[in-house]
User: Which sequence fits this backbone?
């Protein structure tokens, strides 16, 4: 470790001393960049471009600069932490993806994202049943990310927590090519190639990257390859077309599993012994192709989206093959190794029609969304001839199909100082299981979930700089395939699970304080019936059940300010009390009392940033983040993950020399070297609830771009 550590520090020192020399080549004139954009336009929610200040609900936009400036471009957590209401945890485990929760929805997810709909360029990154993969977001190509929370999000289907939508940039301007490399702590290395621009009336964006890391914890190495291609053009004066391809490949990504409290305290880099015994790991191969078409027909607008893709996964879990007594454990044969090949496709048709005969500005929107996902799924024992961590005998073989068909209607009406948005969506999600492994019985079956989800939001402009709004809606959340995959009482799917149904209310204020400051505040209350919760989690296998009633009450506060020509600041504060509002029995014999806190949900979250840009070629910022303690299971009796505060620093430098543009990035995370639990695995039956965050970490990168 000593030679590697010495080399790392030496490399960092060289980069640090080299930067002033590079900066001397740059223009030292004062910055004349545009000030901080305090009122960006978004399409999420209204489905047409509108400034966030004029929309009667909680919606935020993260700009291209905020996504890329001094960031690594690897995980969406880099950008999403600045959004009130969101809790985004980087598990430091690329086998399990990010943990994202919105107003407490999604915190229970042991892997991937659920309770929140993920969309990239109109293509769902969530399956019809609601399981999402944030890793498919290509941050290197992002133009902006929009985050919608609250009652208005129910118009997007089975996602009670909200919507996160990423938009890639269009190819514009003279063609240019670029390359970038990034190195950092724990063996991080990322290489990135890009080409973009416009020629002959068509824009293009091409992007490819490879990321390697040894991982902060033992047995957590990963390699991620991403590619992206986009072609955008105008077939005629009244239409726009974009063709988009993207892929994600991760082979042999190691999974260190969670940690017990004792193991975490003794060594935050430690790995669960079961992870080594079973060589827990995951491989992913994901590819998708999409099309976005928009045509103006008179005053109306037609929007058509279509996509298709495939996703192959094989995952080796730590489910033991024997009971403590030494007897064989038959259930292991069903999923010690999980493998599936997924085909997915779908599309949407939306019609936006202005009603010129109505007073004010009225637009009616009708649409139909269709999504289908089909998994050819197998389960194997993870033991063969006494050797663990290998593919053994087949124990599960089935075709799992999830299909959703959702028509909706929506009205956006601006009448004087009043703004009204109302809509109704009829969601239907059908889950089919066709069992081909009949040796242990036929577990085939199907389940259909249906729900009408209305939403209404009203805003009043007290003054041009002060808007107030109220919003109400009804949402629901269906069980995902992963949550239904195992039953505590039978071999097959848990078709007994019911969807959770929520009543959501929100009241808020949006204010412009002078020309340079924007303030958003929202109070919300959400009551949920049949909340989906962890019943038992052990050895990599989790079963779920419906709880009784839950109550979420909270405050969100967002502040952005251009303090001066050189200084700007950003603040996001969330206070959330998420509790069970009725008693229920968990796992068959444990009573969970009314008033217990939902696990995985911090009560207080704070993000603050101070940015300094003294010249147009340099910017630097200090980030601070605070999160209060987090309970890890429903009884609230096990040791909660303690609250923590961390500070990060970043800087970016840029030089222009004729056709060339050079840039350098420096970043230091966890400046005070705080040891803390970065994320938790809710309800883990082995007591491995905790996932350690890295200590002080450094990153340095450099890149060049040539413009033709």
Assistant:
């Amino acid at each position: 470790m000593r030679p590697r550590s010495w080399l790392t520090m030496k490399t960092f020192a060289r980069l640090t001393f080299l930067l002033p020399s590079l900066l001397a080549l740059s223009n030292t004139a004062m910055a004349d960049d545009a000030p901080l954009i305090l009122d960006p336009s978004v399409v999420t929610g209204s489905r047409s471009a509108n400034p966030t200040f004029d929309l009667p609900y909680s919606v935020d936009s993260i700009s291209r600069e905020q996504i890329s400036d001094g960031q690594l471009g690897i995980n969406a957590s880099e950008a999403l932490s600045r959004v009130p209401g969101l809790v985004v945890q980087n598990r430091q485990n690329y086998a399990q993806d990010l943990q994202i929760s919105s107003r407490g929805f999604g915190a229970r997810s042991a892997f991937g994202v659920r309770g929140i709909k993920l969309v990239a360029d109109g293509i769902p990154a969530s399956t019809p049943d609601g399981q999402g993969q944030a890793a498919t977001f290509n941050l290197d190509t992002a133009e902006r990310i929009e985050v919608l929370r609250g009652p208005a999000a129910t118009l997007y289907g089975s996602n009670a927590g909200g919507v996160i939508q990423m938009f890639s940039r269009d190819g514009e301007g003279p063609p240019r090519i670029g390359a970038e490399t990034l190195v950092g702590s724990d063996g991080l290395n990322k290489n990135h190639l890009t080409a973009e621009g416009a020629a002959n009336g068509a824009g293009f964006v091409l992007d490819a990257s490879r990321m390697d890391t040894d991982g902060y914890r033992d047995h957590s190495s990963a390699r991620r390859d991403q590619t992206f291609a986009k072609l955008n053009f105008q077939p005629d004066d009244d239409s726009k077309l974009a063709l988009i391809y993207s892929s994600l490949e991760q082979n042999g990504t190691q999974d260190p599993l969670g940690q017990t409290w004792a193991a975490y305290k003794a060594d935050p880099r430690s790995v669960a012994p079961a992870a080594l015994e079973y060589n827990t790991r995951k491989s992913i191969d994901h590819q998708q192709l999409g099309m976005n078409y928009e045509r103006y027909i008179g005053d109306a607008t037609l929007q058509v989206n279509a996509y298709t893709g495939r996703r192959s996964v094989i995952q080796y879990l730590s489910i033991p093959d024997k009971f403590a007594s030494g007897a064989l454990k038959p259930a292991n044969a069903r999923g010690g190794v999980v493998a599936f090949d997924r085909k997915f496709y779908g599309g949407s048709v939306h019609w936006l029609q202005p009603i010129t005969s109505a007073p004010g500005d009225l637009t009616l929107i009708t649409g139909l969304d269709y999504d289908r996902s089909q998994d050819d799924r197998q389960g194997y024992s993870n033991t063969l001839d006494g050797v663990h961590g290998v593919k053994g005998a087949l124990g599960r073989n089935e075709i799992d199909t999830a299909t959703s068909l959702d028509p909706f209607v929506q009205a956006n009406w601006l009448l004087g100082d009043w703004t009204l948005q109302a809509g109704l969506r009829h969601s239907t999600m059908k889950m089919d299981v066709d069992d081909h492994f009949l040796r242990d019985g036929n577990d085939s079956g199907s389940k259909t979930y249906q729900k009408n989800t209305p939403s209404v939001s009203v805003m009043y402009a007290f003054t041009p700089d002060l808007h107030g709004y109220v919003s109400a809606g009804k949402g629901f959340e269906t069980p995902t395939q992963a949550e239904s995959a195992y039953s505590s009482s039978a071999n097959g799917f848990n078709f007994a699970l019911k969807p959770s149904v929520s009543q959501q209310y929100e009241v808020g204020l949006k204010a412009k304080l002078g020309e340079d400051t924007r303030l958003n505040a929202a109070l919300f209350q959400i009551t949920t019936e049949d909340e989906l919760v962890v019943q038992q989690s052990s050895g990599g296998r989790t079963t779920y059940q419906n709880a009784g009633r839950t109550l979420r009450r909270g405050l969100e506060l967002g502040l952005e300010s251009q303090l001066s020509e050189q200084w700007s600041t950003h603040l996001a504060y969330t206070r959330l009390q998420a509790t069970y509002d009725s008693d229920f029995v968990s796992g068959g014999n444990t009573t969970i009392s009314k008033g217990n806190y939902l696990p995985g949900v911090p009560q207080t979250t704070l993000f603050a940033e101070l940015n300094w840009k003294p010249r147009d070629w340099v910017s630097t910022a200090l980030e601070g983040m605070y999160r209060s303690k987090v309970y890890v299971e429903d009884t609230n009796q096990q040791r909660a993950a303690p609250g923590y505060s961390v500070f990060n620093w970043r800087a970016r430098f840029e030089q222009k020399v004729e056709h060339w543009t050079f840039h350098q990035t420096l970043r230091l995370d966890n400046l005070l070297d705080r040891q803390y639990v970065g994320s938790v695995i809710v309800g883990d039956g082995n007591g491995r609830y905790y996932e350690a965050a890295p200590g002080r970490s450094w990153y340095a990168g450099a890149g060049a771009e040539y413009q033709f």
Remarks:
- The CA atoms of residues 170 and 542 lie 41 Å apart.
- Residues 2-23 form the longest helix (22 residues).
- Confidence is low (pLDDT under 50) at residues 1-34.
- The radius of gyration is 25 Å.
